[in-house]
Amino acid sequence: MATTRYSRILLKLSGEALASGEDPFGHDNLTNLSHTLREAVDDGVQIGVVVGAGNLFRARSANLGVMNRVTADHVGMMATMMNASVLRDYLRAEGTRAVILSPQAYPPLSRAFSRDIALPLLQDRTILIFGGGTGNPYFTTDSAAALRALEIQADVLLKGTQVDGVYDKDPHLHDDACRFDHLTYAEVIDRRLRVMDLTAVALCEENSLPIEVFDISDPANLLRVIRGQLQGTLVTKESHS
Length: 241
What we know:
Layout: E1 8-13, H1 27-42, E2 46-51, H2 69-93, E3 98-102, E4 111-112, H3 115-123, E5 127-130, H4 141-151, E6 156-161, E7 166-167, E8 179-180, E9 182-184, H5 185-191, H6 198-206, E10 211-215, H7 220-226, E11 233-236
Parallel strand pairs: 1-2, 1-6, 2-5, 3-4, 3-5, 6-10, 9-11
Antiparallel strand pairs: 7-8, 10-11
Helix pairs in contact: 1-7, 4-6, 5-6
């Protein structure tokens, strides 16, 4: 069993992390991710996961001239349940216990979330997949991730992205983009850096929950972050400079 930096994590994944090209569910991506999560459990880490739905539906890019924003947000939350269900079955295929918890029960896919249910499952080496967002419109899955991370008393909120941390501008578009090793919540909010939804960042700041942003295009990076072999961009209350 490897030494780890964190004993309980909340992993926030975009829906795109599950996809492969035009396929919203990439078999290799899901298999590699599930294998990595199983290894983390074997290291003794307790894991909660929040998955977005960008591979299936984006409420903010829906035609809001036709579709009401509240309707669009609820469709997006339903899409996260689809992603949660697929990820759960891939985890189970790896021999890992996995359960979906959501704001309301969706039989037979999920049970309604409560801390009294969640904490014993975590302690029993069960990966919890939190589907359905917060259950309320106008809140992103980033906000759902911050909320669930606090409710399960996670050590850190890990956000897996397609880049190796937070930059001052899009590194895919700008060769001179500058990467940050460490930021404060205030810097993220003041500079409106694309770490997470600002509501989520403010919630983490209020409760001193660290955020670490890292590249999960290689799922093994999750283990490297947990084991202290790799650091993305760490967001905390105090500057490390």
